[in-house]
Design a protein that fits this description.
The chain is built from three helices and no strands. By secondary structure, it is mainly alpha-helical.
Length: 128
């Protein structure tokens, strides 16, 4: 094998490795987008719940249902924004040959979802 052929083989292997990483980054981005849509869906469901239960719910429960709906919509939008930022940072890191795990977004999203779930449970408790 000539030196030129060896260089071409190495370049092709490196390009293939980066292509796989970029594709994995895109799959992760799409998973975050699905998560954001699901979270916003919870916001829309609780908003419709608000209209269905407002004649039965107390003022406190009504306020909690609204808060859960707005918080879910806001969290879904923030998840979308942060997923775009994480995607672009990872894309840049892949091109530079670096990798940084973004565990803060997972922790922040988990805490926010737990708070929303507790608020939703409190809404149901106050309503019935």
């Amino acid at each position: 094998m000539h030196d030129d052929e060896q260089i071409n083989v190495n370049e092709t292997q490196n390009e293939a490795k980066y292509v796989q990483q970029h594709l994995a980054n895109e799959r992760t981005f799409l998973a975050w987008i699905r998560t954001a849509i699901a979270i916003m869906g919870v916001g829309f469901v609780t908003t419709s719940l608000h209209f269905e239960l407002r004649r039965y719910a107390s003022v406190k429960a009504d306020a909690l249902i609204k808060a859960v709906g707005y918080a879910s919509l806001a969290l879904g939008c923030l998840t979308f924004i942060f997923s775009v930022i994480a995607y672009l940072r990872k894309k840049s890191g892949i091109n530079r040959g670096e990798f940084r795990a973004s565990s803060w977004i997972v922790v922040a999203l988990s805490i926010a979802l737990i708070v929303i779930a507790l608020m939703f449970g409190l809404c149901l408790y106050c309503t019935y």
